[in-house]
Design goal:
With 902 residues, this protein is an alpha/beta fold. It contains 25 helices and 26 strands. Strands 20-22-21-26-19-25 form a six-stranded mixed β-sheet. The protein has a three-stranded parallel β-sheet with strand order 9-10-11, with helices on one face.
């Protein structure tokens, strides 16, 4: 955190000065480690074992917050008889299909509750009939990979769970209740296993457990803070689930000083998620409709919410209709489903990596790149650059001529001969962008807080903000389509595209924020801004571009522009910026009071029930129905906010409780289970299933994988490497490698190795090293340091190599170097299609890498020694030669290889 978020780390240091204990868990010793009370180096990719052993410690020592857990979690709920854990099935949960690499999740549900797929009603048939895990080279399996991505963003707010038949055991003794299932599941996660898998000694692990449990309970709370890199794993979602289970067991959710904080970057990463850059979401985390399941608006609404479930997600119809009204205004009427048909439909996975592969298949003609540098910053950089060469046109908007814009003349593939400038038909349009100080608007930071940024200076020359660029692009497209009678053009022509301009001819960001907030459209309040998402209606009487942001313009005031000093308000500081939803600074804060509505302690008082006033009150905006008494119990079958009992604090969950066990919403398991990374020199000691059995693999000749565990050839790539950021550089380097003041601080790409690894491989400090994977080889300066320590794992020493990922090969930056991300292949998390780019295996040797065609031969020689084929690492169910894509697909691949060998 100190390395990547130095401004935010100020508050950690202030907390430490007041007595807080800071524990840093990271493979590498960093600036954060230097000021932490305890640094715990662990093997990259082993976090689930570490977290799971903390859960086991909490449960086995009785350290869990019993009253909180019984009242506010699903610990007492009884699971179905046919649920089977990974220990029963050698590494997979019940419902696993080895042919498709997917789960039928119905057996994970509560006893007495109707089956509900994670995919959502209406999508089941499409997904079950697709070979989602194959990723082979046949047309059928390629199409199934495209289908795999649609419609998995329902999570805890998914379709009706039929909760009226749910069975509970308040004593927590029933063998199938969540609490007992959790205890059995985590019994194997012992301090000894932590040492064996993570390389963390038991005495050091004990210090972590003691600190976390001692700092939790009625009087104290512990926070878990993770970098975005925690998600960059094939089990990344389950890492965060592991932390959530710890926090729920210790009573740290919904309380001040608790929770889980994802560290977001300064570039409004949280805001980019809220008003989404993700292909399968609409603003406010509404799922995108799919082509097969959502023919009409009622079809769509029936799959994302139900009037029978608890909580505020039952108003998804109001959130959706208000969004459609914001986008299409008067054209959106009840008679035409509020222009629901104007929305595009998902046909499957349209994420970043699927898009790149579609470029290689010549099914995509053009590409916009904004705020990223995929030629350097995305996994498998070679695949990214080769794909760009297949485009007809490419638009790059950035501050500098980044490597994605210049790949056609100076990429590594030009040097190797894989690309020739004269053969590349891609027309590149580089459009200079305005910096964050040259435009106004909101940033949404990691606390969900919107803060208004005023323009400091006008952008120079032709530099434009993204808002201005897209407004102008939309205006020009609409001019070209004016008068068109084609149905396909109506969505563009019907858009509300009439934003006011300022004195410089720029679009008013303030007007956009007002539109996002939403308005009353009819009645006495017509034209007035909405003050809360609870005012939205499903009849077309309100508009709003993102329901969770509604209230940011309450009373006609830009709430995000507030900057009242802390000395002039109380400690929660509600008048500094504005946090979604409803300016709540802590989500689910009803859990900060006991079931009777009293603070757990005076020290941690946050919100509470005022019996005399008959309302919830406190330091924060209560995240609950304001006048609902703690004693309230709904009638059976009542849904929505009225269905929440007075002690159901998790108001967006279908049952109002925090989930220790996830009965729906996840594709890779209801509880975290340890799997090794896609590439690992270590065999999974828990079961024969080596890696996540639902991970998204791509069997392609241009995406070969290293052997893992005890697989033949794994000794060719015996080391673990992990990537990270440096304070002196920013992400892929587009904002730092062009600045002399920053470039001179970190002038060359380097690798960090321990003295022991240096001795083993003959690496010299400040000399050169070549790091090789099945994709490519890169070179780096050697930094011999104690910051990356060897770990004893599974009875042998595992060495780790640290690689910052800011450099790229190109002629325009002040400093350049090989890109760390070139080493990675493409393997994705099953839930959100994020790449595994924090850990993989490699070889490292002294000296500079070969150049030109000799580099390709060097990489191929390693592959031949390791026996790498397109099947290597891509059989999703370990140990079964016909798994993870069907026997026919595997047989076809092997037949092709046999013919090729002959």
């Amino acid at each position: 955190m100190a390395e990547c978020h130095p401004v935010g780390f100020q508050w950690v240091m202030e907390a430490k000065q007041r007595g807080a204990t800071v524990i840093h868990v990271d493979p590498r010793y960093t600036r954060t480690s230097a000021v932490a009370d305890l640094h715990v180096p662990l093997r990259a990719g082993s976090d689930i074992v570490f977290l799971g052993a903390i859960v086991n410690h909490i449960l086995s020592t009785g350290a869990w917050f019993e009253e909180y857990v019984k009242a506010y979690t699903n610990a007492a709920v009884i699971l179905r008889e046919d649920f089977q854990d990974v220990d029963d099935l050698d590494g997979v949960f019940s419902g696993y299909d080895p042919e498709t690499g997917t789960y039928d999740t119905s057996s994970w549900n509560y006893d007495g509750v109707g089956a509900q797929s994670s995919a959502g009603a209406g999508e089941e048939e499409t997904l079950e009939n697709s070979d989602r895990g194959a990723g082979g080279d046949s047309g059928e399996s390629e199409q199934s990979e495209k289908q795999r991505g649609a419609g998995h963003e329902l999570g805890g707010h998914g379709a009706d769970m039929g909760l009226s038949g749910m069975h509970r055991d308040e004593t927590l003794q029933h063998p199938r209740c969540v609490f007992q299932v959790l205890k059995r599941h985590y019994a194997r996660y012992t301090p000894e296993l932590v040492e064996q898998v993570c390389g963390v000694p038991p005495e050091q692990f004990a210090k972590v457990c003691e600190a976390v449990t001692a700092n939790s309970g009625r009087e104290r709370t512990t926070a878990w803070v993770y970098s975005v890199g925690w998600t960059h794993h094939t089990v990344g979602i389950q890492y965060i689930r592991g932390a959530a289970i710890i926090q729920l067991l210790l009573g740290n959710m919904g309380r001040p000083g608790g929770g889980i904080m994802a560290l977001r970057g300064h570039a409004s990463i949280q805001g980019s998620t809220d008003i989404p850059t993700l292909f399968n979401l609409l603003p406010g985390y509404l799922p995108m409709p799919t082509v097969d399941a959502h023919g009409t608006l009622p079809d769509y609404l029936a799959t994302i919410s139900s009037p029978d479930q608890k909580g505020f997600w039952t108003a998804a119809d109001a959130y959706t209709v208000s969004l459609l009204k914001a986008w299409w205004g008067d054209a959106a009427t009840a008679e035409n489903d509020f222009c629901f048909d104007h929305l595009p439909r998902l046909t499957g996975d349209h994420g970043t990596y699927r898009t790149v592969m579609d470029m290689l298949e010549d099914t995509i003609e053009g590409y916009f790149v904004l705020g990223q540098n995929p030629a350097v910053g995305s996994a498998h950089g070679k695949m990214q650059r080769l794909a760009l060469a297949h485009l007809d046109w490419l638009v790059v908007r950035d501050l500098n001529l980044i490597e994605t814009a210049t790949f056609w003349k100076d990429s590594p593939e030009i040097e190797t001969g894989e690309l020739r400038t004269e053969d590349i038909g891609t027309e590149v349009f580089f459009l200079p962008a305005a910096t964050h100080v040259e435009k106004e608007g909101t940033f949404t930071q990691t606390h969900r807080m919107l803060q208004w940024r005023h323009k400091a200076v006008e952008p120079p020359g032709d530099c434009r903000s993204e808002l201005q660029f897209f407004f102008e692009l939309g205006r020009k497209i609409r001019e070209r389509l004016a008068g068109s009678t084609l149905p396909r053009d109506r969505p563009v022509l019907d858009l509300t595209w009439d934003y006011p301009l300022d004195e410089h001819g720029e679009v008013s960001a303030d007007a956009v924020l007002r539109e996002i907030n939403g308005y009353h459209l009819t009645g006495e309040r017509a034209g007035r801004p909405l003050s809360s998402y609870t005012e939205m209606t499903a009849d077309g009487a309100t508009s709003g571009g993102c329901w969770i942001y509604t209230g940011v313009y309450a009373d006609g005031v830009n709430q995000a522009d507030r900057r009242k000093p802390g000395r002039d308000q109380h400690w929660v500081a509600p008048e500094w910026g504005w946090a979604w939803p409803a300016n709540r600074r802590t989500l689910y804060n009803r859990a900060s009071a006991d079931p009777q509505g009293r603070p757990w302690s005076e020290r941690k008082a946050y919100v509470w029930w005022d019996e005399e006033a008959g309302r919830w009150t406190g330091h924060d905006v209560p995240d609950f129905v304001a006048d609902k008494a703690p004693s309230y119990r709904p009638e059976p079958g009542v849904g929505g906010p009225d269905g929440l009992a007075g002690d159901d604090p998790f108001v967006m969950q279908a049952d109002g409780k925090g989930w220790l066990f996830a009965p729906t919403g996840l594709l890779d398991g209801p509880m975290p289970a340890h799997y090794e990374p896609q590439e690992s020199p270590v065999s999974n000691p828990l079961y024969r299933q080596q890696a996540n059995p639902t991970r998204q693999v791509f069997r392609r000749e241009d995406n070969l994988q290293n052997p893992s565990g005890d697989e033949a050839g794994s000794e060719v790539y015996p080391y673990v490497f992990t990537t990270y950021r440096l304070t002196e550089h920013h992400t892929a380097g587009g904002m730092s490698r062009w600045l002399p003041y920053l470039a001179e601080l970190q002038p060359e790409f380097f690798c960090e190795v321990s003295p022991e690894l240096a001795a083993e491989r003959g690496l010299e400090h400040l000399g050169w090293a070549t790091i090789t994977s099945a994709r490519t080889a890169i070179e780096a300066r050697v930094l011999v340091t104690d910051r990356v320590v060897p770990l004893r794992v599974g009875g042998r020493v595992i060495h780790q190599v640290g690689l910052p990922y800011h450099w790229g090969v190109g002629g325009d930056a002040l400093v350049s170097g090989d890109a760390a991300n070139d080493l990675f292949g493409v393997t994705l998390d099953a839930n959100v299609h994020i790449q595994e780019s924090k850990v993989a295996s490699c070889d490292i040797r002294p000296g500079r890498r070969p150049t030109g065609p000799a580099l390709l031969e060097h990489v191929d020689a390693h592959r031949r020694r390791a026996g790498v084929t397109i099947l290597t690492g891509n059989e999703v169910r370990s140990g079964d030669p016909t798994s993870g894509g069907g026997a026919a697909a595997v047989a076809e691949v092997r037949a092709k290889e046999h013919t090729s060998d002959e």
